[in-house]
Structure formats: C-alpha cells, structure tokens
Fold this protein.
Amino acid sequence: MPASLKKFVNPKFIRTVDLALIRTLLQRHDGALKGFDLATLDGDEARARERLHAYLLGATEQFPEGLIADLHQIADLGCKAGLELILTHARRLGVQILEPAEPDQGDAPKAHDPKHVALRVFLFHRAVFDAAYDFQVLKTKTSLIEFAGLSEGVAAKTDISDIERFREAVSVFFEADMRGRYCRLACYEDGRDINIVIAHGAVVSSLPVIEANAERVISMRAVTHAVLRYEKDSGMLRLGGISRTRAPDMADMFAGHLLDLPGFFAGPDARHLYSLDAVEQAGPGFAMTHAHDPAIEAVLITTATAELWEWDASSGGRKRVRTRSEKSSSGNVLANLFDVPTPLGGAWRLCEVGFEVVFKSTGKRRDSVSVTLRPPAILRFRRSSHEDRIITLLQRNGLVHDRDDLRVIAAAE
C-alpha cells in the first residue's frame, strides 16, 4: 500500500468496512489484481478480513494503478469535511445516499463513518461524488493566476453545447502538452459567477516494480485537476492548476468559447492587479488596518522580500542583482527590511509581502489565514474560507488596483 494511503486504509477500516463494498471496488480492477482472489470474500468473514488486511497493507507493486487512483479519491473525501460536501451535493441533486438506519443499529452505525460513506457514494452515486470532489478541488487550489477582463458585467455562456465545445478545446489544449486527450469538465453556477473544474491527465511517469522476481518499469498517467473561476460583476478570471506560461492561452480560450470575446483577458491591464506602493510609501510603520471588519482580530506582517535592480548596459535593460528577505512571527519584519543602504522605492523595490490574518474565534483552535502578495498579479491563500474578507482587506489597505487605476496604467503604457 502506498504510504500516502496508509492513514486511510488502516487496520480499523479493514475490520469494519462492508465487505460487499470492498468487493465492488476490487471488481472494478479484477483483471489487474495480483495476489488476491475475490472468492476469498465469499467465505468466512474473519478469514476474509485477515486476507484483505494482508493484501491492502502489503507491497505497493501488487496494486493496479487504477485501484490506487480510486483509493486516493475516496480518501480525499473520507473525512468530516468531505462528508459535509457529499451531503451538500446529495441534497442539491436530490439523491438519497443511505437508507435510514435500522432501530437495532444504535445512534452511530458504522455505515455513517465518513470513510464508509465516501466509498459507498464513489461506487453507487458517482454524480454526487464527482460534484463533492470538484468542490474540494476548488477549495484546495490556493495559488490562482488572475486576469482582469476588458470590462465588467459580461455574462458567460453555460449552455450544455457551449460547455461541451469548450471541453473539446480544453482536451486538445492538454493533449498538446503531452497530457493525453482525457478531459472531464464540470461547470457549476454560483449566482452570477461560474466555477469550472477540469479533470485531465498528468505528465506520464515511470515506476520500477518487481514482477515474478524480475524488475520492470511501468508507465502511468495520473489524473490531475485545473480550475477556472469567472466573476461576471468584476470581469475577473482566476485559474488554478495551469502553468503560468500556458495560463494566458487558457484564459483566451475561455474568452473565445464562453464569452464570445477573444482577447478579453489580453488587455494591457489584465495582469496589473496588485501593488505594494502603499507599503513602500508608509515605510516601516505600515500596518494593515482592519477596523472595517469586526471578525478580524489581528493582521501580522510575517514575511517581506525586496529586490535590488540595476541598469545592465549589455542588455539595455534592468536586471535584478540582489534579493533580501525578512521573516518574523511577531509582525515587525518591515522595520528590518527597510534598514537597507538604499531606501525602498528607488533601486530597492519591495516585491513580496506575507501576512497572517487572525480571525476571532470562540474555540480552542486558532482561525487564521496565511496570505502571500506578490505584485502585479500573484495572490496566494487558502480560499476555502474568508475569501471575500481577504480581498476586502487588501482593497481597504490600498493593495488592489481598482478599475480606474488600471485604466490610468494602461494609458500611461
């Protein structure tokens, strides 16, 4: 068993899992199973679980690649947060995923364990599982590449035929990057915004395995995910899971297929989104103000990086010759960083700031979000909670260019 799955497929899970569910899962890969006979599950239950334990916790090379991929997906939703997503989308789709518990099962039937629920839904309610998994992907993508459109209020087309044409184009896009033609695309409307999750092939990897006392190398292509989030009111497109060099191409493809506006995200201001000018101008005394949001307890600037740029006569342009970074959990990194021979704002420029936003919480666990801002276009943080609050905080502190600012920048360029 791969180390990444041992926390999920542990002895307790094997002792309690419904053997009928395990049989159904293994049957999906019956032709590739090695070292385990499905007929074992038809005999004595204790012996069946013993053999299952030996197989599932055994050597990695005996597992079909498809089974490992299935277990990874199930493990991702086999937790409390995953159960909440499954229940949310089961209600949205009107699907009953479990029969009511029998009176003699007590208040905590094992079938309600998040791991067991995820396994059952994966096997028998795939539409619910895929939707829940897609939203988990949306939450876990933290480093998004952002583009500002040429205007605000442009609606995207979400008819089935439009989405299918876009999916076909995306499939060709990834095939050109040697990631295969497989492409599953799901579009979820959220008010005036749309979220798109794309499951596609990763780059082929090779794995040496032992078979019949001989070594051989197998090739496999895992499934990975990309996300697109488009906000109609702001005209902003956010991409995750796509390389920075290919992101402009994906953005233009989205604009051409779903907005009927090729080049919509290719304007001169499309990537001029954030600025640290306010920090440089205020100097070491800069502090993030948050009085507008009573839910925020504190904002601590924990990291900062400055770069020294000089003119390079040989290339006829500027080049970066030095980088200086400071890090502190106390929130006073700017005082140290501003203590440089040349003041920030000249040859030295502040290029990145990291801060921790602490939210008021009644529980024992601290509720905080770590944010990294690197102008002109990089903003990284866990977007599963407080996303709107983080964006508003940046806007209130002058770290986000508004539309009027962008038009001035574009005109100047």
